[in-house]
């Protein structure tokens, strides 16, 4: 089978990692790169740095990765769709959900793979978690809570923490639970003097009844990437920064110490830290993109799913302004 000819639009912080991995994925040849800002990380390595998406298309590519600022996603992706190029766009899919849905429709109408880089789907801890939840290891799932905190990345200037980081947590929660959001409410804070929010706290409910909670900010000197799933049989904790998954089982041994028993309710059981293979998530995502172009079914986030994720985030931001709970489509609840 001939190798797929790949193009990369954007050679910034994310683009440099895409370039590194695309050169090493079996069945893919990185044949063209483009960035109007040049090659600040010197990753072109033997390839001419083209000025724009049109010149990238002219290089005769089969698939493309778009890793440029959010405000430019839509124009680049529409051009690639018109040219018949399978495309993976870094998250968020676009500036707004409406544009995201139009992008999804454009790729679907042309029979092209249109995907979005919600890379947490390929985190080994979350893949293990999703599988174990599907097999009933936690029993009925009650709540999924995430924490995603770090200092502000200076390269992000066109969106706030909700569209940049909360999209990860919204997508991974819906994917792990295999259910979309029914409603959300949120509070935001602006503490760094920027036009966009740098802190958001989101509460929601999925359509299968699971409660979701997300704490996300760019105001912490500590980097944290944690997903906690609480169910009838115990609690899973996935550390997506390290790819570790731990299960805290509910106790099955009766507590004879009356004071402790009455205070705790659910007793402590065995704690298991699972061992499993850990592939770099971005590599796994790009391999899945290759496989999707070849016609395989993968766990990639479709553009339609990514547009729904953006709808949820937009509803959360609207809720923070209005002070009420909203449906995931942005309508106030009764």
From TrEMBL:
Keyword Ion transport: no
Alphabetic keyword roster: NAD
Residue ranges occupied by any Gfo/Idh/MocA-like oxidoreductase N-terminal domain in the UniProt entry: 5-118
Coiled coil: none
Pfam families (alphabetical): GFO_IDH_MocA (PF01408), GFO_IDH_MocA_C3 (PF22725)
The protein's name in its UniProt record: Gfo/Idh/MocA family oxidoreductase
NAD keyword on record: yes
Domain GFO/IDH/MocA-like oxidoreductase: start-end pairs: 127-236
Superkingdom, taxonomy of origin: Bacteria
Organism for this UniProt entry: Microbacterium helvum
């Amino acid at each position: 089978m001939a190798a797929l000819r790949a193009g990369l639009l954007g050679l910034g912080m994310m683009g440099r990692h895409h370039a590194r991995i695309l050169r090493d994925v079996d069945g893919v040849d990185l044949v063209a790169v483009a960035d109007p800002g040049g090659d600040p990380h010197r990753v072109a390595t033997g390839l001419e740095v083209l000025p724009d998406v049109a010149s990238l298309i002219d290089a005769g590519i089969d698939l493309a990765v778009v890793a440029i600022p959010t405000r430019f996603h839509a124009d680049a992706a529409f051009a690639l769709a018109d040219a018949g190029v399978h495309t993976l766009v870094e998250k968020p899919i676009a500036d707004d959900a409406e544009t995201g849905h139009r992008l999804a429709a454009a790729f679907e109408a042309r029979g092209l793979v249109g995907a979005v880089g919600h890379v947490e789907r390929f985190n080994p801890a979350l893949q293990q978690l999703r599988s174990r939840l599907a097999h009933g290891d936690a029993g009925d799932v009650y709540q999924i809570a995430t924490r995603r905190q770090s200092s502000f990345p200076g390269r992000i200037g066109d969106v706030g923490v909700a569209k940049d980081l909360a999209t990860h947590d919204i997508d991974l929660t819906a994917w792990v639970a295999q259910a979309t959001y029914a409603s959300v409410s949120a509070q935001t804070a602006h503490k760094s003097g920027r036009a966009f929010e740098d802190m958001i706290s989101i509460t929601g409910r999925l359509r299968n009844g699971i409660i979701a909670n997300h704490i996300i900010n760019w105001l912490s000197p500590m980097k944290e990437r944690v997903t906690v799933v609480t169910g009838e049989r115990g609690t899973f904790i996935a550390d997506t920064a390290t790819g570790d998954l731990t299960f805290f089982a509910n106790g099955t041994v009766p507590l004879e110490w009356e004071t402790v028993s009455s205070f705790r309710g659910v007793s402590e059981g065995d704690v298991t830290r699972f061992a499993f293979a850990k592939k770099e998530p971005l590599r796994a995502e790009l391999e899945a993109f290759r496989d999707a172009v070849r016609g395989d079914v993968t766990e990639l986030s479709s553009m339609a799913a990514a547009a729904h994720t953006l709808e949820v985030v937009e509803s959360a931001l609207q809720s923070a302004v209005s002070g009420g709970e909203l449906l995931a489509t942005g309508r106030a609840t009764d």
